[in-house]
C-alpha cells in the first residue's frame, strides 16, 4: 500500500477505474490482457481459465507454502473459473495469494475480514492479501491482538477495475502502516486452483458483494484506539512489506493465538428489515421492542401496588417480590434508573457515588446556612402520576438480560457500555442521514434536469411552429412569384399560340364540312377563313 496514493476516511466503497493516474491506485494487480479499462462485468472474470495443467505442479506449490496434507489441491476442470461456484467442500485459491502471505488453514483474522465483507478468498487480489498479512505481522511484533475494527480504521476496501475483485487501501487520516506494494503483477488471474478442506471453510466460498454497512467507517472503543496508537508508536514510519513478509515473520504471526471463528452472517430477515442499519443496533432495537411487549403484557396481570404509588405491580415484579418474601430477603424496588442498574436501595448510594441525602445534624454542623437545592418541575402541575408513568417507561426500556448485566456490572462499565451503544447508534443515524441527504440531492438534481429539459422542449416546439409558419408563407410567396413569372414568359405565349392554332384548324374543318353538305358544288380549297376573322 504506497503511502503516496491519496485516500480518504470516507465510509463508502472506493471504485478504482482503469485510467488511474498512478499504477498503485488499482492495487498493482494489473495484467497485460486485462488492461482494456472500464468497470467491467462478471463475465470478464469467466474468460480467465486456470493456467495449471498438471496435478504435480499443484502439489509442489502446496508443499512450497506449507499447506497441510489434509487439504487436497484439485486441478480446475475446463469449465471452472475463479468466479464459478466451487466444488463441494472446496474454495478457490490464487497461487500469488499464497506468495503474498495467505496461509492455510486460514488465520482467524483472515476469516473475520472475509466474513465481515462477505467476499470469498479468491475475490481478494494478491496485494489485498499482502495488506492483511502485513497487518497481522505488525500486530504480532507490537504485541497487539489483530482486530477487524482497527484494521478497518487503517484501511478501506476498494473495488478492483475488473468487477468482483477487491483490495485494501490505506487511509492518510489514520496514518501509514505499510509500504512497498508491487505496482504490477502478471498473470495472477489465471493462476488459481481449488483446495478441499476436511472441515467446512470458516469463510464465504462463493463470490459476493460487500454491503454498505460493512464498508461504513468503524467506531473504535477506548481499547481499540489504544491498540491503533500503539501500532503507530511501536513501528514509527511505514514498514516495507518486502522485508516484513518473510517466512519466519509469517510463521510467527500465524502461530500466535488460536484462530477465531468468524462472526455469523446476518440473517436475510435482519438484512432486509435493517437495510443501512448496524446489526448490533438493530438487535438492540428488537430486544427493546420485545421488552416493551413483555412489559405491556405483564401490566395486565396485577396483584399489589408499589409503596407510595397507585401503579399495580406487573406479573414479573410480583413474582420477584413473592420470591424475595419467601426467602426472607428485603424487598427492593428501584426508583431510578441508577438504582435499577446497580441494585442499590433507596437509602444507600451505589458504589462509587456519594449519597444525595444528608441528615439535619450534618447540615447544621457543616453548613450553617443551607443552600436551597433546585427542585425539578413536576409534570401535570405537581401530580406524581406523570413521574410514575415516566419511571415505568424508563424501566420498560431495559430488557431483563441487560438488567441483570447492569446489576452485576460496575458503574463505569455501565457508562462505558452505554457510551459505546450511543456511538453505534449515532454512527447508524449519521450514515442514514448522509445517505438520505445524498438521495435528496440526487432527486433535486434530477428535478432540475427535468425542468431544464421541459423548458428546452417547449422552446423547441415554439421554434418548430415558427419555422413551419415561415416555411408555409415562403412557399405561398414562391408559388405566386413563379406563376407571375410564368405568365409573362415567352413559353406561356407560345403555348397560348399553339392552343389557338389548334382551335382554328379544328374550326376550319367543321366549317368546310358544314358548307359542303349545304353547297356541294363549292370548291373546298376556296373555303378559307383568315385567322384574324377577315377583319381590316
TrEMBL record:
<protein>
    <recommendedName>
        <fullName>Transposase (putative) gypsy type domain-containing protein</fullName>
    </recommendedName>
</protein>
<feature type="compositionally biased region" description="Pro residues">
    <location>
        <begin position="259"/>
        <end position="268"/>
    </location>
</feature>
<feature type="compositionally biased region" description="Basic and acidic residues">
    <location>
        <begin position="362"/>
        <end position="377"/>
    </location>
</feature>
<feature type="region of interest" description="Disordered">
    <location>
        <begin position="253"/>
        <end position="279"/>
    </location>
</feature>
<feature type="compositionally biased region" description="Low complexity">
    <location>
        <begin position="343"/>
        <end position="352"/>
    </location>
</feature>
<feature type="compositionally biased region" description="Basic and acidic residues">
    <location>
        <begin position="319"/>
        <end position="342"/>
    </location>
</feature>
<dbReference type="InterPro" id="IPR007321">
    <property type="entry name" value="Transposase_28"/>
</dbReference>
<feature type="region of interest" description="Disordered">
    <location>
        <begin position="298"/>
        <end position="385"/>
    </location>
</feature>
<dbReference type="Pfam" id="PF04195">
    <property type="entry name" value="Transposase_28"/>
</dbReference>
<keyword id="KW-0175">Coiled coil</keyword>
<feature type="coiled-coil region">
    <location>
        <begin position="436"/>
        <end position="470"/>
    </location>
</feature>
<feature type="domain" description="Transposase (putative) gypsy type">
    <location>
        <begin position="91"/>
        <end position="158"/>
    </location>
</feature>
Amino acid at each position: 500500500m504506497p503511502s503516496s496514493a491519496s485516500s480518504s476516511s470516507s465510509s463508502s466503497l472506493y471504485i478504482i477505474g482503469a485510467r488511474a493516474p498512478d499504477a498503485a491506485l488499482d492495487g498493482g494487480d494489473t495484467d497485460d490482457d486485462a488492461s482494456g479499462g472500464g468497470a467491467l462485468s462478471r463475465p470478464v472474470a469467466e474468460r480467465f481459465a486456470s493456467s495449471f495443467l498438471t496435478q504435480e505442479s499443484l502439489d509442489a506449490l502446496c508443499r512450497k507454502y506449507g499447506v497441510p496434507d489434509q487439504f487436497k489441491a484439485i486441478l480446475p476442470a475446463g469449465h471452472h473459473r475463479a468466479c464459478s461456484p466451487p466444488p463441494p467442500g472446496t474454495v478457490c485459491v490464487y497461487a500469488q495469494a499464497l506468495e503474498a502471505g495467505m496461509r492455510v488453514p486460514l488465520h482467524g483474522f483472515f476469516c473475520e475480514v472475509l466474513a465481515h465483507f462477505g467476499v470469498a478468498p479468491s475475490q481478494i487480489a494478491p496485494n489485498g492479501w499482502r495488506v492483511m498479512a502485513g497487518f497481522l505481522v505488525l500486530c504480532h511484533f507490537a504485541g497487539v491482538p489483530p482486530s477487524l475494527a482497527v484494521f478497518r480504521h487503517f484501511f478501506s476496501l476498494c473495488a478492483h477495475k475488473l468487477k468482483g475483485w477487491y483490495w485494501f487501501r490505506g487511509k492518510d487520516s489514520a496514518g501509514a502502516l505499510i509500504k512497498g506494494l508491487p505496482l504490477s503483477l502478471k498473470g495472477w488471474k489465471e493462476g488459481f486452483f481449488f483446495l478441499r478442506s476436511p472441515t467446512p471453510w470458516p469463510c464465504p466460498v462463493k463470490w459476493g458483494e460487500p454491503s454498505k454497512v460493512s464498508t461504513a467507517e468503524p467506531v473504535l472503543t477506548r481499547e481499540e484506539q489504544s491498540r491503533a496508537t500503539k501500532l503507530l508508536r511501536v513501528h514509527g514510519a511505514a514498514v516495507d512489506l518486502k522485508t516484513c513478509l518473510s517466512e519466519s515473520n509469517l510463521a510467527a504471526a500465524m502461530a500466535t493465538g488460536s484462530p477465531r471463528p468468524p462472526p455469523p452472517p446476518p440473517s436475510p430477515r435482519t438484512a432486509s428489515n435493517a437495510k443501512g442499519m448496524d446489526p448490533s443496533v438493530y438487535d438492540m432495537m428488537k430486544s427493546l421492542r420485545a421488552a416493551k411487549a413483555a412489559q405491556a403484557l405483564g401490566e395486565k396481570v396485577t396483584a399489589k401496588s408499589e409503596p407510595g404509588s397507585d401503579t399495580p405491580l406487573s406479573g414479573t415484579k410480583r413474582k420477584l417480590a413473592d420470591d424475595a418474601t419467601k426467602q426472607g430477603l428485603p424487598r427492593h424496588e428501584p426508583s431510578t434508573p441508577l438504582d435499577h442498574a446497580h441494585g442499590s436501595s433507596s437509602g444507600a448510594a451505589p458504589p462509587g457515588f456519594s449519597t444525595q441525602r444528608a441528615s439535619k445534624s450534618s447540615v447544621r454542623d457543616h453548613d450553617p446556612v443551607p443552600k436551597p437545592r433546585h427542585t425539578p418541575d413536576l409534570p401535570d402541575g405537581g401530580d406524581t402520576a406523570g413521574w410514575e408513568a415516566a419511571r415505568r417507561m424508563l424501566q420498560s426500556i431495559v430488557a431483563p438480560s441487560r438488567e441483570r448485566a447492569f446489576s452485576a456490572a460496575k458503574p463505569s462499565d455501565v457508562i462505558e457500555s452505554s457510551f459505546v451503544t450511543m456511538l453505534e447508534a449515532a454512527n447508524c443515524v449519521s450514515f442514514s442521514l448522509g445517505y438520505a441527504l445524498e438521495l435528496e440531492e440526487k432527486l433535486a438534481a434530477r428535478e432540475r434536469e427535468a425542468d431544464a429539459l421541459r423548458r428546452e422542449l417547449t422552446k423547441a416546439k415554439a421554434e418548430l411552429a415558427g419555422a413551419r409558419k415561415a416555411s408555409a408563407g415562403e412557399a405561398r410567396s414562391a408559388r405566386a412569384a413563379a406563376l407571375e413569372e410564368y405568365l409573362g414568359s415567352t413559353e406561356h405565349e407560345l403555348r397560348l399560340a399553339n392552343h389557338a392554332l389548334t382551335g382554328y384548324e379544328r374550326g376550319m374543318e367543321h366549317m368546310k364540312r358544314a358548307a359542303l353538305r349545304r353547297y356541294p358544288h363549292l370548291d373546298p380549297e376556296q373555303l378559307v377563313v383568315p385567322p384574324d376573322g377577315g377583319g381590316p
